[in-house]
Amino acid sequence: MTVDALTDVAGLRVGHAARGEAGWLTGTTVVLAPEGGAVAAVDVRGGGPGTKETDALDPRNLVRKVDAVVLTGGSAYGLDTTTGVMAWLEEQGRGVRVGADPAQVVPVVPAACVFDLGRGGDFRARPDAAMGRAAIEAAAATEPGAPVAEGCVGAGTGAVAGRIKGGVGSASTVLDSGITVAALVVVNAAGSVLAPETGVLYGELFQGRVTCPEEGVHEAARRRLAETTATHAPPPLNTTLAVVATDADLSKAQAQKVAGTAHDGIARAVRPVHLLDDGDTVFALATGARPLDAQDPLALNEILAAGADLVTRAIVRAVRAAQGVDGPGGVWPSYEELYGGRPEAH
Question: How confident is the model at residue 38, as a pLDDT?
Fold first, then answer.
C-alpha cells in the first residue's frame, strides 16, 4: 500500500517540528534515511541559497551516503537545526566512522533553508538545535510508510508562494520497472504558482487538469490579493526546496543528475523561478534497494522524468494543503480560500 508521499521509498521517514506561540511562524522538516544511509546529491539553482554540507555531496568528494537531510525555515539562522539532528544521529552511532570505536562518528547532514524571518511578527523567532532534534525524533517515531503531513507544517509553516500561502507537499509513483520515485517540496517561491489571467495553478496546467475558476471568483481573488499586497510588501527573499528520492541503486553522479533534472519540476509550477532572491535547492536520495537495468544505458531516464513530474505535483499539493495566515507579520490567503475546491480533470 502506498501513501503517495516520500515515505513510499522504503526506509525513508519524515518528521516536522514547529512552534506555534505568538510571534512564531516557522519550522523544520527532517528526512531520515534508513540505517546505513542513502546515496545523496544536490543541485542548487537559486541565486541566494542558504545551505550546509552541500560540498560533501559533490560526486568527486569522499562522502557517499548521508543519514538525514534538513529543510528548515529561519533563513541562515535556521541552519543551526542541524546541530540537534547531528547530536541525535551521534547518539545512535550513525555517521561517517572516524575512529576505532564505533561511537566515533561524524554525521554528515546536508541542509537548506527558506527565508521566513518575521512572518509570525517576531524577526528573532527562528528554528534552533532543539527544533532540529524534535524534527528528527518525530521522524524516527513514525511507522515505515507513514503518511507525510502537508501544508503549513515543518519547514512550510511560514512559507509563501508569491502572494499566497505556501507549504509542504509530497508525491510518489511506482514505475513500470518496479522502482519507486518520490518527492517532498517546501514551496516558498518569489515567483507565482498561479496564472494571473485565470487563477489556474501552473502545476495543474502541466498535469492537464485545467478547469478555470469562474470569472467572478477570479476577480474577487485578484482584488483580495491586491489588497493584501498593498497592506504588506512582498517578502524580500524566498526559496523552494525539494528532496527527490528513489529506491534505485544509483551512484552519486546519477543522483546528482536526478537532482538537476528535478528542478524542471519547479520551473513548470513556479514562474519566474531560480531568481537572485530565490535559493532553490534540490537534494536527491537513493536507497539502493533496486538495481537499474545494467543492459540499458538509458535506464536512468525514467527516474529523471518521474522526479521532475513529482516535484510539480508536490508543489500543487503543498499549495492546496496550505492554510491562510493573517497575523502581525503579514497576510497571505490560501489558494483554497481564494478559489475553493479542487478542479475536475478533463
Answer: 98
